[in-house]
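Narrative of activities, Objective 1.

The group set out to show that a structural description can be obtained from nothing but a protein's sequence at a throughput compatible with the screening campaign. Below is one input-output pair from the validation batch, recorded exactly as produced.
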Amino acid sequence: MKTHKDYFDFKIIARCDNSNARAGEFRTPHGMIKTPVFMPVGTNSAVKMLTVAQVLETNAQIILNNSYHMYLRAGCELIKKAGGLHQWQNWHKPILTDSGGFQIFSLAKLRKITEEGVYFSDPKNGAKHFISPEISMQIQNDLGADIIMAFDECAPYPCDYEHAKSAMERTHRWLKRCFDAHNNPRIALFPIVQGAFFEDLRAQAASFVSGFDAAGYAIGGVSVGEPTDVKNKIVEFCAPLLPDDKPRYLMGVGTPVDLINGVRFGVDMFDCVLATRNARHGTFFTYSGNKIIKNKEFSEDFRPLDENCNCYTCKNHTRAYVRHLYRTGEATAATLLSIHNIHFLVNLMKDLRNSIIENSFDVYSKKLLEGFNRCQTV
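Output recorded for this entry:
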């Protein structure tokens, strides 16, 4: 009988001498992923403002879809009939789906958490729904991604110790149910470490999830409103506690500075909506900090968005042109900024990976951080 080990394999090919940074290769049914890696988010089975061809041109290796939105909108049965997410959206590289737990738990007054699962109302039309660990596994198996996430309870920030402990313990009970319900070795199920911002709870959670024979493991419950130093402390604490020979995924984190720090802490996989959300609001990444395209300083600036970037936007258009599009309400502005921001993060991870292989990560990452922190405008 085949197991996930027949379809998934992770090898570390280089390590940093003075930190936990590592470069790896993660084999999946839809291709090899070179880590560390940034995953663009295609919430509704599309990366906002971009076609699949445009996402491919950014050199993205893997994308993330949200099973909560797929379940509520297109419907899992329709996507299953289409042949699964890969056929549905014509993306034939790896795909990861999150369980929708974070979206459900963020509904506040629109949901009720029970031991059996979560009852919630669709915020758009008020329709009543129920998702349990077993239903979450069925939804994600029907969608057919390469990697799926366990159904978990994400505690808010701030929260007291007892709340965090209760959410973590329920996450663990649900994790057992997820593994009992999931039996497709071609789809890897990642457990999630919760425990809010209490180190003893995080240590318990890391130990518990590591007891499951999984193809990879995730750190959840960060980027929920906490200060950056608090987030860094918990990620730095958690990452080394997870199995060294499996990929480590930090959920929902994606600023350039966060990516560099996460790699330094020993994280291999990242995702975040920030790249495209920032783009739609006119913000773009550069190696000297974030910039806002609508600012007057760019009105006659005929340089690319970033002179060190070779994305489609930077090779073909100027800051002045993109500013004009943005100020006149042309949707193309958001497309061009999204292409740049995703390419920027994908390429940043590629460069960090190369620096690990060349054993220059410490010097290179420090230089990058100095540039990013020099002129942060947002």
